[in-house]
Amino acid sequence: MGGGTLQMIIQRRDLKKYGLQSLFIPEQLAVILLDDLAKDYGERNRELREGDYLEPYNPEVDVWLYPKSIEALNPAEHQGLTCCSFSVRKPLKPKIHTWTTAITDEHILEFFYMPSASGVDHLADDNNFAEAAERTAREFAENIDITLTPDAERQRQAALTEASKLAQQRA
Predict the structure, then answer these.
(1) How far apart are CA 138 and CA 83, in angstroms?
(2) What mean pLDDT is predicted for residues 71-80?
(3) d(C-alpha 33, C-alpha 35), whole Å
(4) Burial 129-164 (b: 16+ CB within 10 A, else e)
(5) Measuring CA to CA, which residue among 35, 62, 34 is closest to residue 48?
(6) Is 72 exposed, middle or buried (0-12, 13-18, 19+ CB in 10 A)?
């Protein structure tokens, strides 16, 4: 049997720390997400390599795999918002599916879907556990309905106007 856990988190981010203006600007959202991933999963990998554990470190099993580029975050538009959909995993474990978007200049909304298999080899060729988990996460994300507050919508419009100006200056 298989199941899963769905977790929702809203986080406030300190944009000044990064010299950023708004998470509504897709490139700036990506900067925050990639930094978070590198800090969290990169640090976990460093601890595995450098830690003093009873079991020897095996990079083919123990290393966390996570997005390291904007493209790997799979940015796409959902209801006028830039959303990123990606997964992290250890090689022999189910993927943790993540869906993230900005909901204010400084806040992100994240959903994590963590599938679990009880008594099932989730990597076996004779079941579709990984496919079903990915489909469940994708279908859930596609059906999220986000309505920004009037203030957040003003922030989004201002950020997109600023991003457009910057893009024109670069061109």
Answers:
(1) 12
(2) 94
(3) 5
(4) bbeebbebbeeebeeeeeebeeebeebbeebbeebe
(5) 62
(6) middle
Biggest CA–CA distance in the chain, Å, is 57
Q: What confidence tier does 169 reach under pLDDT thresholds 50, 70, 90?
A: confident
**Residue indicated by tokens 């059906």:** 143
What is d(CA 94, CA 130) in angstroms, rounded to the nearest whole number? 7
Backbone angles phi, psi at 157, to 5 degrees: -60, -45
- Residues 105-145 have pLDDT tens digits of 999 999 999 887 666 665 666 667 777 778 888 888 888 89
Question: Residue 114 pairs with which residues in a beta bridge?
Answer: 5
pTM above 0.70, yes or no: yes
Sequence-distant (≥ 6) Cβ neighbours of residue 86 within 8 angstroms: 66, 67, 72, 73, 74, 97, 98
pLDDT at 110: 95
Phi, psi (rounded to 5 degrees) for 105: -55, -35
